Amino acid sequence: MEVSNRYVTIKTHIHGAPEESNFEVQAETVALTIQPGSNDIIVRNVYVSVDPYQINRLKSYSSSQKALAISSGINPGEGIVSPGLGKVVASSDPEFEKDDLVTGFVTWAEYSTVKAGSVRKLDPMGFPLSYHLGILGFSGMAAYAGFFELCKPRKGEKVFVSSACGSIGSLVGQYAKLHGCYVVGCAGSSGKVALLKEKLGFDDAFNYKEETDYKLALKRYFPGGIDIYFDNVGAEMLEAAVANMNHFGRIAVCGTISEYTDDGRRAAPSMLDVIYKRIKIQGFLATDHLNLHSEFRSTTCDYLRNEKIKVLEDISDGLDSIPSAFVGLFRGDNIGKRIVKIAEE
Predict the structure, then answer these.
(1) Which end of the chain has fewer CB atoms < 10 Å from its terminal CB, N or C?
(2) Which InterPro entries does the record cross-reference, listed alphabetically (predicted)?
(3) How many helices (H) does the chain have, and how many strands (E)?
(4) CATH node for 138-287
(5) Domain boundaries 2-134+313-341, CATH class
(6) Sequence-ordered list of residues with C-beta below 8 angstroms from that of 129, at least 6 positions apart, any chain
């Protein structure tokens, strides 16, 4: 049996801020059968993840493209790979049967043909399927590992989180509060600021768009200094955080979204502060800390079942909504984890 498989790709490489016109939907004919011994699995995608870092794969060049296979560059016309989940349609691997739920790396498409090693069976554990792309997926893992493993928080420490209404920042702030820290976040609207304080339990929050001097703003919110900064934006906010860090402060660099669309915009923190305050700054990927996966899942599932942690999701419907969902990330449209629903569960 053959079907027409629609998928999202780019027309040309993206430079600067992405626009919906950079993308197009193409179609290819896919046979829903597997050749024996191919080690392939055909998955009908149900949900796909949309994340800011993916823009670096869509550029003609980014230094990140050399780092890992999953960050390699994508050429116009090619399928765009992302975390996703779906149901098995056909498999040459005896461990996967038709209609098994699987999660892993798929394409922004209706169907994905993947190798058995790139997906795993999914046990929903009583949670919505979408949670397994957000709070129980790479976003949650990045928040948990970056905060607990890199920053080594202690109760009572002062924590600053940028892009605090995003898929990762919103979780970092909640983990920090549950750990007994004082937490301030920044976001790009008054509505998001209210959400951080009223729904997620941040001690305070501010709208960075209303601040003309980030260093003075952080001094106002952290008069006694910052112990931990979880960085999702880079550029001037990282500089301001370093200027306000306490001695032996820790910075986990998870993302630099403010630099992704502007090649001339780079953070230039005071290295004298870094040296004399003995500040630790470390970049990381969630995949660096898979040894923590069981601990992360157990802890986070307990928090969810006991309603100690809130989930922020921004889900759009249909393959055709992927370009607008992606572009919206760079306008700050999303609240929480941005996911696209491709098909019914």
Answers:
(1) N
(2) ADH-like_C, ADH_N_2, ER, GroES-like_sf, MDR_fam, NAD(P)-bd_dom_sf
(3) 10, 15
(4) 3.40.50.720
(5) alpha beta
(6) 46, 47, 85, 101, 122, 345
